[in-house]
Amino acid sequence: MDNVVRSANEAAEKIIEWSKGHDIQTCFDKARKMKPCPIGAAGACCRVCHMGPCRLIGSRAEEEATGVCGATLPTVAARNFLRMVVSGAAAHSDHARDMAFTLMAVANGETRDFRIADEAKLHMVAEILEIEVKDRPVNHVARDVAATLLDDFGRQKGQINYLKRAPQKTRDRWKKWGIIPRGVDREICEAIHRTNMGVDHDPDNLLLSALRVALADGWAGSMISTDISDVLFGTPRPLRGKAGFGILKEDEVNLVVHGHEPSLAEMIVDVVDDPELLEYARSKGASGINLGGMCCTANEVLMRHGIPTAGGFTNQELVILTGLVDAIIVDVQCIMPALAELSNRFHTKVITTSSKAKMPGAVHAAYDEHRARETAMEIVRMAIDNFPNRKQEGSHVSDLNPLVAGFSQEYIEYMQGGRMRASFRPLNDAIMVGRIRGVVGLAGCDNPRVPSQGLHRFLARELIMSDVLVVSTGCGSHACQTAGYMTPEMALENAGPGLKEVCEAIGIPPILHLGSCVDNSRILTILSAMASEGGLSEEIGGMPGVGIAPEWMSEKALAIGSYFAASGVPVIFGGESPVGASKEVTRIMTVIWFERFKGALYFEPDPEKILSMALEFIDYAREGLKLKKYEPGKFGVERVLMDMAARRETTF
User: Fold this and answer.
1) Considering the entire predicted model, what is its pTM?
2) Do the beta carbons of residue 319 and residue 298 sit within 8 Å?
3) Rounded distance, CA 342 to CA 407, Å?
4) Mind listing the pLDDT tens digit for each residue in 326-359?
5) In the chain, how many domains are there?
6) Same-domain status, 539 and 429
7) Number of neighbours of residue 564 by Cβ within 10 angstroms
8) CATH of the domain at 459
9) Which domain, by its residues, includes 539?
10) Could you give the 3-state DSSP secondary structure of residue 318?
């Protein structure tokens, strides 16, 4: 052992050590050997034309360095950032488009494998879109909803539909600075045009384009995906689950669903209990069929069905190294191509399912929503057929952590007042009197270039001890799940006195699992509902809330952070800045954005400083809203015996 901690997850660390003893390289080893290019990492490399690539460093002052065409460092850094945001927004939005087509197929009766699972959510969406629901068949409403949401992709003029869900003051800021998105595809196409050689050279203008594209992701792509998933598969409610490599069973066929799109995974959940498949598994020597999840597909099926999870992004190689996975089924996004080569050392079948995401060395089983159940049955049979090929080799670990997941906006509102008095008033009140200091969205990837999951765990612990309610999504949730942080008992043991009191009263964990990375859109609707409830800010900007992505690695994270910044939330990313080479671009994304939108992007590699920054932003917002100053253990309204004069002053 070299005494270098690669993962804060002890079970993961054991598997990594096992791999080193068997001459198997993982992403952790490669991250140590392959250092990032310092020029590209800081945004100072331009490769948008064949006169380059141009590295904007040299004898001149760096901010004045130019490429062959004369593009300055601020232009190049802003252009690179915009391209990353475009890629992230395209990933979420293309996912959402597929979900809208699935809803349309259900509405038209073109697939019998899916149905409308939550009519109330469908009607809620229809009302937002101003679609008539009264006395209409559910499929007719669903067809109109799908068609209206699909319009948000190709619209050329006007604005995306869901912007009306944001507070008016927030929308006024977007209008003032010209970042209201028209249609998802329109904004993505225009942004890529801007970054072509010889088009937009104004760093501020390029960065405004990044915010416009990001808003199309947050308030259209991601939000559409979340809503349609709820409509088709059910709106999440709290349920118990388990997390860790110990979810794998030695005597059963083990399947792992990995990626981001929930529709095929939903169908696999449905068929693994099929009597015919169970009998087939027994005929191959297995005692049953065991389904687990990985990454955001795991979050989707965990939130709705309690399917156990093996963890997030950096655990995907490690789950194969257990030697117990008979098939890992992948769709799109965050899939390491190393899986196919790694599986050759074991017996695991890597099965790709999307025409957009094939992988040399993997088996391809094309998914089509019109024959979803049939495809799911075929895939499960492949896994069963592979069970007899299982080898003894592997790092078998048995860690298992209980958790509570399944917190949607609808349930968070319900849990504060019940069916008749559902409201965000109790949460707002708890913030106003200081029981809850503020709210942090702890999200983003886990990354092998730091002790993986360690920054998430550190920040989660410290924040709840400081009476900060944490809401988490994506791999940030996995980091907390595999640490055992997502139980109500966690509040009793670790939360500050005010947060503990709130959690005890409602019966919730201090860290609320909101779902996959597209479900960051739930945070937007929650913040909007809190603004509408009153008592805090009349807009999202200025609320005592912060977003943190401490271990981010994907361009999707930058798109998410940008739509929160544009919506009025300060966002802190861990690690070095991808625009750090340019002081001007850094100034625009921090000082200027905060002045315009009350939200901004910051990059900070030191986790202690991330924590300090987050608490300072929260306290600054409390001061701006003239709320009671936060003091640990001191909250509530002071009780004073009032004399008659004081009583007269309070009489209306």
Assistant:
1) 0.94
2) no
3) 35
4) 999 999 999 999 999 999 899 999 999 999 999 9
5) 3
6) yes
7) 29
8) 3.40.50.2030
9) 409-624
10) helix
